[in-house]
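Quick one: structure for this chain?
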Amino acid sequence: MESLKSDLELRDIAMSIKCKKSLISGLLTLFIILSSLFFVCSSTGLSQEAMAPDFQAVDLDGKNISLGDFRGEVVLLHITNIENPLCRECEHALNAQTSQLSLLAQKDPSIKIVTLNVRKNPYSKDGRALAKAWWNINVTWPWIEDFEPYPLTGKYIEYSTVEGGFANPTLILIDKEGTVAGLYHVYQLGKGEIDGIKSADTLYSDLKSIEQGEATGFKGVASTKAVNYLGMFGLGIVTSLSPCSVALLLAMFSYVMTARRKEEYLKKSASASKEGFMIGVAFTFGMAMVFFVVGLFLSDIGVFIRQARFFDLAAGMLMVILGINIIKPIGEIIEPVRSRLSLGRGNSDSLPGESVPEKKGIMERLVHFSMRLFQYSAFIGAFTLGVFFALGWAPCAVSLVFPVLIWLISQNVTPIAGGMMLFVFGVGHGVPVIPIATFSRAVGGQIGEKYISAGKYVTKIFGVAVIVIGLIYAVRYLGFKMW
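Got it. Here's what it folds into:
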């Protein structure tokens, strides 16, 4: 009987180890595939001779429109934002350029024009109706309204933005093979005319030269920005060295790993360090996935936030404040003033000598929830713990991470690229966790102390850099551009 029981226990342990190995290999495979995709994508920027992204949509006349249907013909893609309320500063450019497109359609009805109209206000009349009512322009070509989350114009972010802002309107010339052959940024809010209003004659000449194969080189300038994933990875490591963040990680992992190693000891297993390593990897992966989702969201809204007139000034001022907070928490700076203001005020919420029961903090409750998941799978528990930790950063770590988020909003990247960038950032942000989770409590504590010691200097240097970058952003509002 004892022998049978022992055999069953050994079989259960073997099955558990097999499941863990399968989960480990699955996590590592997914991690490697995603990382490979990210670094491959990082090396592929916007080419001036890239294929125009295809799309399918229904225009205002109820016709199905696909860019692929125009293959073999030259197409003029018009991206604009005409709605109520209208950008008054942009009105002249919007009116004039739409008028020139109408003249072009009259000059040669065979020319293919397609308009993608960005709609932020779903209650406004459509852009074609407003162009007729406001400027008496008769639009005879396909006109498509693109609503949030902008599935059509989102594919053309690289072409419709210049220096981080939305060019309204933008004209894209596409050849017979579906390749982008030319690009004009007509106007940009806050900057004025970029390439200027293109007349019907100019556009007719451009389109005919492309059609006849006589075009010499790319017309206009494509706005491109290379994505440096190695830099994002390094930023992730730097921002993870916040002393309070490391201290919180040490306390959390000390609790988690002590409980885990006690179980391993009872099972007489010698794989504690190996499991600790995989727990650290799963924790990092969970944290990185949260950053990935945040990157998708920020990049999606960024193209429209960037066109706001005061974006550079507001972003710069916020980064300066965050930089100061990194060097010396603003709470400490204003503490003397706050103490004087509160002098003489008593705390009347509780009677003298009465003890107020402490409530568990949200992070403590989430750690306990994750610990329950550890009973079923250490890796799922660690992954969940990483997700919760990313959602509930220590307050002093927020000042380190927010400048990166502001920077991402200002970049000319698609949502998926923004998600990739923050995923790599999240991996770097979680790297210091792995040795803390891998080694014994004493060794992990020593490593954490070294992180804290280094972080005191690294974070201050980072704070100075954030202040400088914030000032550069702010002076861009005044017209001084350093990049």
